[in-house]
Amino acid sequence: MDKQENDPKINRRRFLATGARASVLVGIGGVAALLAKKTIAGQTVWQLDPAKCIQCGRCATNCVLTPSAVKCVHVYAMCGYCDLCGGYFKPETKTLTTGAENQLCPTNAIKRKFIEDPFFEYTIDEPLCIGCGKCVKGCGAFGNGSLQLQIRHNICVHCNECSIARNCPADAFSRVPASQPYLFKGFGQEEENTKK
Amino acid sequence: MTNQASPASTRRLLQTIAAASAVFAAILCVLIIVNYIQLKRADPLNSKALTTLVERMHANPGDEMLRQEIRELDLLARKAFFTNQWQVRMGGYLLFLSLLVVVICYKAAELMQKTIPEIPAEGNEDFWHLRKVNRLWVIYTGISIVVISLLVVFLTHRELGKTLELAVRDSAGIENGSGGDMDTPDDQKTMASAAGTGPDSLAPGAATDSISGSNTDVKNPDGYPTIQEINDNFTAFRGPGGIGIAYQKNIPTNWDGKSGKNVKWKTAIPLPGYNSPIIWKERIFLTGASETKREVYCIDLNSGKISWRKSVEKIPGSPSQEPKVIRETGFSAPTMTTDGRRVYAIFANGDLIALDLDGNEIWSKNLGIPQNHYGHSSSLIMYRDLLIIQYDQRGSGSVMALAGKTGEVVWKTSRSVKVSWASPVIVNTGKRTELMLAADPIVASYNPANGKELWRMACIEGEVGPSLAYADGVVYSVNDFSKLSAIRIREDIGEIPGTGDNTMDGAKPGTGANKVDGTKTEAGAPNFQPVLLWEDSDYLSDIPSPLATPKYLFLVTSYGAVVCYDAKTGTKYWEEELGTSTFGSPMLAEGKVFQMDKNGVMHIFRADKEFSLISAPPLGEGSSCTPAFADGRIIIRGDKHLFCIGK
Amino acid sequence: MQRFPKPEFESGYQQPDTLQPGARAGLLAIMDVVVLTITLAFITWLVLKKRSRLGVFLTSVFSLAYFGFYREGCVCSIGAIQNVTLALFDNSYVIPLTVIAFFVIPLIFTLFFGRTFCAGVCPFGAIQDLVSFKPQKLGTRLNAVLGLIPYLYLGLAVLYAATETDFIICRYDPFVGIFRFDASFGMFLFAGILLVSGIFIARPYCRFLCPYGVLLNWISRFSWRHITITPAKCIQCRLCENSCPYDAIDMPVPGKNPEERSITLRKLILICILVPFFAILGGFTASRLHETLAGVNGKVQLARALLEPASETGVPETFEITAFKSSGKPVSQVYYEASVIIRQFYIGSWILGCFLGLVFGIILARRLIITYQADYTPNKGTCFSCTRCVDYCPVTPEEIKP
User: Fold this and answer.
1) Looking at residue B505, what is its pLDDT?
2) What is the pTM of this model?
3) What is the domain count for chain C?
4) What Cα–Cα distance (Å) separates residue A119 from each residue in A94, A109, B313?
5) Is C144 a domain residue?
6) What is the average pLDDT score of chain B?
7) CA–CA separation, B304 vs B326, rounded Å?
8) Where are the domains of chain A?
9) Do C304 and C384 have their domain in common?
10) Which of C148, C329, C332 is facing B168, going by the closest CB pair?
11) What is the ipTM of this complex?
């Protein structure tokens, strides 16, 4: 037993092993140190930049979740409360009723409510919204652009690599600190962006 | 007896449950797959039936029955969509649960049955044989991977990298061999053969990049610089192409000429001149002249010493009398140009000289005293190995190209224009390379290889001092007592963002936009009409040239106003007054605009929608020239000295 | 663009607020790291000290429940390789501390105690362990060939992460779809195949795909304390020979005739020549492929689409081209960026190829060199420390005490 312990071959092997172990430890430590410079304390989340978005419709189909975690969000501060809402009605609508034949939204997720003449309020029923962006396109083309696609962080599972981000033709997705998850575009955005 | 029987029967029960669950799971799997296929085949939200019905309804808005039908169909479609999702989700949960049951039961059954380990039979596989087989198969795998990879490469070889690099040069500002409507096969051949013999190529036809990752610098055997080389140096007035954009990096933004802070050197220039410096590698060139003397100077970029000065005299055909110039122009207003092999200079009396980089004369001639009441100031510019000269004088305007090597006139095109003091610009618009000039009354474009006119637009009047600006398919011209015009010259720009208009219909056609006056159009070129995008008359410049980026247009007037417009719509983003006269033109480097004022203060601000002044470092003496840029340096010509700003 | 002015409401209507629900609290991410560390420590104790298979099994069930179904398998240590790579190569990428922790902590535990992470902390290993009902021996050929795939996977993952092209470990992650209850059909199919084959081939992902496993393999070879089959001394009773479903037990190597020195010398020379040769051959081959590899990159695809002239009318313009046109970016910039990426791929694939060649060479070299051993020991590199073999060993520590 003692002889085995003092056997130079085993000692040498043990020494080499310890040396190797130490260098691996140093290596891991080195990598960690390098990374420590580029780290932040909090988490990062995915964010959609509505200014870059071209409403291609891939948000609805590419999310790993069904329905997608990207939903249309209504920035009320920007809305014009128009009677003929570009995001609600199909382009050639003649009579402005809430009939299914007039609606742009394929799942009836936008609700239209009369406020006072001539203003109507449009709200989004989020469980119904699939994030297809048809209303966003319409509002952007004919209205104030107050309907914007955004990732809903209470639904999003925060994949390491967002499937939608990978396929977004406008490269509109980026990782941002979790403290400022939403980005709205247009006038009044500062107000919305700072509101919690 | 009973005690021994129950564990076995429990085990069997568990196994049965596991098996049943497994079957259930399998059925569920099949169902979910079927459901999924159904969904794929007919997405209820995009049903064709619904769309056709809606279209019919738009044709007959009064049809109530149709309306009801649509509403019902829509409701069905939506219900189907959400039910489908619910079904898949529930199916998934059920599947998971049943699989869980399978696993739990099986594992429990396993646990209950303890197996006694057995000594395995003596294996007849020799340990060494096994190792050998293992090695062999590793080798087989390796060989097959290599073979398959090489096969894939052989079949799909595309050389995308090289094509892209060529494309960058083509579209970056000035052109190279494979741009334009001619010369493509030849130049690519030259590129390929040069690539094949270069020391960096690893295999014939391979990308020419060496492992060190250096920029491909295939010297064109015809003897003119590549686009990369032109962009790396500062070869003409207002940078490569003459449009005011420099590609250098690490440009300093802070200095003080008086105290010498961040001033590497300052050298007195013997003879004055309003031409701006040009830079090739480590050499700076400029000229100076008085009534009787004309000189070309070469200053070393690093030390600031005058490496050589060449006196330009005894040019054949040179007039004995001096031309009439005004003080603000001087006798050497045009900036020099270079192709990296020779430098070229022109003076107010029509003297034109080509020197090699060490100051030896290669050729010289006199073009005749230009009939120019202020003094000739159009700067020189190169196209490949052709020296382009804009010679718009009173009574006979022309643009010509001389062979850089010999000075022979390769082509000369007459222009019916008035005297101009603007300088030519050469840009690759994506479709072809164009040489553009501004003079009363037209902005015109020519093919720089043969001088044929491509298009013209009558939109400029007066004594034109400012040169043109160009970015992203739009040319900008401005002059005092005229207007600021933005002309779209690339017909493949789709909808221009911000205008909401689409191509030809929305924008106003240019007046007299097509070729008249007997100048033949380019044979085979499409009958192209430039289109006036927008115009403005609030701010006009008579000396500094405008500066354009794809998003913004910066206009500087000679009384010190700086305006930022939206490049495509002409919306003014901001207007600032610098408070002094500005004769130099703005330059764009690293996203910042550098504007020199007459007192020698360089106003540096961000090229952005909002005005943000970065700094305003003073030179310590007045300046009317436009700066030149090198990596980490700015070369500024003051009234008396040449300054090198940088560390 | 404000086409319509903000209305002034007279009826006292209150404009609702735009809801902005936040993401999961950052504190919970820290809790994940704490749970990871505690579980790792616990299972290390279970493996090395208690040597309890049941304990390890129950811990793996817990890990499956927590890291798998509760945290939905993201962020995981395997994917963290990509984040770390991207952070090393891209200065603008910020990597959260918790991700670094997920990458580093298992490596450190492995360095000291072997692959206890694989035993019962990694949810992928746990789910595969649950379904390995009838593990079969694979034979040396399959083991040899399939065992090379993780190196390829690791190399490609690092290459694609470093060039900011794609996170292929995440893209081809089979089990995260099960944890999330939501994935594409292809991913579910892949998971199904792996799990069904997992009934007969124990831990197929761990042995033949896991890129993190490559790192753990290398590091575990230097581990300070590794699980041993016997608690004290091996008596060569051979009862444990078929106990490992992963073929991770090193059998005794009979030391009948020690090799002659000349043969050893020849082998050494062969290794010294072959290993660099393989490295260069590998680098050369991979670098020929660099454009094919780069073809996956989005910027390269856009540049290629722009280079090719517009196809026949009738084919609608792709979204990528529409988006590019509306972005106002000059074409030359797209070309330039793409050419830069292609050059990066050239350098990267040389490195990838050299790495793979080296790996090949070293694997062959190791199979050439003979190390004699008398005992049955777990292979320090490939053993997952699952503690199955422990129950097969009849030795008890008291027996050996003198």
Assistant:
1) 27
2) 0.64
3) 2
4) 18, 19, 81
5) yes
6) 78
7) 30
8) 2-40, 46-194
9) no
10) C332
11) 0.83
